């Protein structure tokens, strides 16, 4: 085969894989919108699974998540085509990407417990294959091992909980009715563990900062902006819609888990120097805010504060949309930088604004959305969450009166640290002078990657300026959860029913644009009135010239936060001083190393991994190769299952 034939065949595979992914994503958006605004007939495929078959039924809640997943998949498929020019993919990842997207769409479309579990496990396996794309590196294998252990342990909890639900109320979601309280509480705990592990809630988050950085960037976008959403979908669909309303401690569990995840995630993001690891911890932060909003909505609805509960639930759904947009854009931009420089370390970035101006501007849109600042995609949803917490009517409920101010403080701290993390990522990474030869030689990404990044960037702008565009979809989803009351009016003005609060993001944008225009016109007019300025050298504190060593790095920028939160972050430093051979008093070299460990991962999951490895060694001894022994194992398993079912 000639070189031209090889290059053609290497180009056809990514094109076919990306195009199929785009088609699946577009179909998911179409079917999801249909399920949100109208009734979609249920589909049963009896031959695909033994006994019960596969049952698909798109409800408004599931349709909403299909729209989010499909939109991210369209952008990821387009990005995959251009990204494959820089990272050559084998046949297995090329086939696994459309399969992964198909399973992502099948989970919210599942109409029965059996179908849901089947699609969930296929989603986990196909995502594991994609994480192992560059399996020759030890970091990738280690990340895949942690991800496999976490996802399978979470699936075991989910499997037991869902089987208990099916045994008590039937296999089909549409037919689930009253469930005994003891079963409901047990199912809630087990499913919260299973869904929380997939969503990346604390302390089940350990796989995110490992798997996201090592996966290809379009896969990282799908993991962070689509797959983790399905953990939230499980909480809403199974725990709140089918099992709820539950006892008050359900709401406390969601609120505490969400608040802890948000604060811990943003702390780790604020000190991370690996750009993709920073974005992964940002995912834990934002999913934590969403879960906190769900817990707040459940708590306030049970306390009779329906208007504030509706605002909190609207904040959760709107932030899901915003997070999908700015997080996919962030990973796409990080992938563009990685393709151009081969780097992920922010300490070695710098100067990319001049060499990759479009990527820099698009990452700025993502950073603004993740920071939760005005005119950012995440601002409106976080403002709604704050309003629901501030306007909660505690009445004589002392617990709510005490917890709501603490929740406001947790959200405010999370948003403030989120601003610091994104300022570090954007300012240190893209501005100033390049701190490595690779950053100095960077080139802008190809058109397909730019076009893929432009799609979520446009969504970020719409959500920041005109969030009313998604208002009808949110209203329709909220109508299926009547316990939460009337949805806020998301128009030009954001009116909150029952609360004395309103806002107009479009007017904020118009005022900012007018202010910038006035300043630009005034500056240009004054420059014409002044004489020609003299050119003088830049003052450099007595030095001859400024060098990259004189500017902040990501490590030095985050050092004050590391000192303040040292008890949580466990910041380790090591200084090594090397002297000359002639005299140890003459310093030849000073090496400084800093490391911020994930305390939960090191103290909790290292023993778990050792236990899993030990169990695997024991199981390996049972694999003797005897067919009769394997049949005996199967018979024993069937007997145990029959006794448990009985």
What does this structure look like?
This protein has 646 residues and is mainly alpha-helical. Among the domains are: 554-599, no CATH class; 609-645, no CATH class. Helices cover 69% and strands 5% of the residues. The protein contains 23 helices and seven strands. The strands form three sheets. The protein has a three-stranded antiparallel sheet with strand order 3-4-5, with no helix packed on it. A two-stranded antiparallel sheet has the order 1-2. Strand 6 (571-579) and strand 7 (587-596) form a beta hairpin. Helix 8 (217-242) packs antiparallel against helix 11. The longest helix is centred in the middle third of the chain and has 36 residues, at 306-341. The radius of gyration is 26 Å and the shape is globular. The chain starts with a helix and ends with a helix. 48% of the residues are buried. The model has no long low-confidence stretch (mean pLDDT 82).
Mean pLDDT: 82
Q: Which blocks of ≥5 consecutive residues have pLDDT under 50?
A: none
Kindly provide the radius of gyration, computed on alpha-carbon positions and rounded to a whole number of angstroms: 26 Å
β-strand number: 7
Could you spell the SSE succession in H and E letters? HEEHHHHHHHHHHHHHHHHHEEEHHHEEHH
Give the structural class: mainly alpha
Q: What share of residues is helical?
A: 55-70%
Strand content: under 5%
Silhouette: globular
Sheet with most strands: strand arrangement: 3-4-5
Helical element count?
Answer: 23
- What summary fits the major beta sheet? 3 strands, antiparallel
What is the distance, rounded to the nearest whole angstrom, between the alpha carbons of the first and last residues?
63 Å
Pfam family, one: Proton_antipo_M
Transmembrane segments: 21-43, 63-82, 89-107, 113-132, 144-167, 187-207, 219-237, 249-267, 287-304, 316-340, 361-386, 398-426, 447-470, 503-522, 627-645
Subcellular location: Cell membrane; Membrane
GO molecular function, one term: oxidoreductase activity
């Amino acid at each position: 085969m000639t070189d031209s034939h090889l290059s053609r065949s290497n180009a056809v595979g990514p094109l076919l894989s990306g195009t199929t992914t785009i088609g699946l994503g577009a179909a998911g958006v179409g079917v999801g919108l249909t399920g949100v605004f109208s009734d979609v007939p249920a589909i049963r495929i009896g031959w695909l699974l033994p006994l019960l078959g596969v049952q698909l039924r798109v409800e408004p809640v599931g349709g909403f998540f299909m729209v989010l997943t499909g939109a991210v998949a369209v952008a990821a498929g387009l990005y995959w085509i251009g990204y494959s020019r820089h990272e050559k993919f084998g046949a297995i990842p090329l086939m696994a990407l459309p399969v992964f997207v198909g399973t992502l769409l099948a989970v919210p479309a599942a109409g029965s417990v059996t179908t849901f579990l089947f699609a969930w496990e296929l989603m986990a396996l196909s995502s594991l294959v994609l994480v192992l794309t560059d399996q020759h590196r030890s970091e990738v294998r280690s990340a895949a091992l942690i991800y496999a252990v976490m996802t399978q342990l979470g699936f075991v909890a989910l499997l037991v909980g869902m089987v208990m639900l099916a045994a008590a109320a039937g296999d089909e979601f549409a037919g689930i009715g009253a469930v005994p309280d003891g079963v409901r509480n047990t199912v809630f705990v087990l499913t919260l563990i299973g869904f929380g592990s997939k969503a990346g809630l604390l302390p089940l988050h350990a796989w995110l900062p490992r798997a996201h950085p090592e996966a290809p960037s379009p896969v990282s976008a799908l993991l962070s902006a689509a797959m983790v959403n399905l953990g939230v979908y499980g909480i809403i669909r199974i725990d709140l819609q089918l099992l709820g309303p539950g006892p008050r401690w359900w709401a406390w569990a969601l609120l505490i888990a969400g608040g802890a995840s948000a604060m811990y995630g943003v702390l780790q993001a604020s000190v991370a120097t690996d750009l993709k690891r920073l974005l992964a911890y940002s995912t834990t932060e934002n999913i934590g805010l969403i879960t906190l909003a769900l817990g707040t909505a459940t708590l306030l609805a049970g306390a009779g504060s329906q208007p504030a509960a509706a605002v909190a639930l609207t904040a959760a759904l709107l932030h899901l949309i915003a997070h999908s947009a700015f997080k996919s854009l962030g990973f796409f931009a990080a992938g563009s930088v990685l393709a151009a420089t081969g780097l992920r370390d922010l300490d070695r970035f710098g100067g990319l604004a001049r060499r990759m101006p479009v990527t820099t501007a698009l990452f700025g849109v993502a950073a603004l959305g993740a920071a939760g600042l005005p005119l950012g995609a995440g601002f409106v949803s976080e403002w709604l969450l704050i309003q629901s917490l501030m306007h909660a009517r505690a009445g004589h409920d002392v617990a709510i009166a005490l917890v709501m101010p603490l929740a406001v403080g947790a959200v405010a701290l999370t948003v403030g640290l989120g601003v610091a993390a994104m300022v570090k990522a954007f300012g240190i990474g893209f501005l100033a002078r390049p701190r490595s030869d690779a950053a100095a030689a960077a080139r802008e990404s190809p058109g397909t990657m730019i076009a893929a990044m432009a799609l979520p960037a446009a969504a970020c702008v719409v959500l920041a300026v005109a969030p009313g565009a998604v208002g009808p979809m949110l209203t329709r989803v909220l109508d299926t959860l009547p316990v939460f009351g009337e949805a806020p009016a998301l128009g030009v003005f954001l009116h909150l029913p029952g609360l004395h609060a309103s806002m107009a993001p479009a007017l904020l944008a118009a005022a900012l644009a007018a202010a910038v225009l006035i300043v630009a016109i005034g500056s240009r007019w004054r420059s014409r009135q002044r004489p020609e300025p003299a050119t003088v050298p830049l003052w450099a504190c007595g030095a001859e010239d400024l060098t990259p060593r004189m500017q902040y790095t990501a490590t030095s920028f985050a050092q004050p936060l590391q000192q303040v939160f040292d008890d949580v972050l466990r910041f380790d430093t090591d200084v090594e001083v090397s002297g000359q051979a002639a005299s140890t008093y003459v310093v030849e070299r000073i090496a400084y190393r800093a490391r911020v460990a994930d305390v939960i991962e090191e103290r909790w999951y290292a023993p778990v991994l050792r236990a899993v490895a030990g169990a695997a060694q024991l199981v390996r001894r049972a694999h003797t190769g005897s067919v009769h022994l394997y049949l005996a194992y199967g018979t024993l398993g069937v007997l145990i299952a029959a006794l448990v079912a009985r």
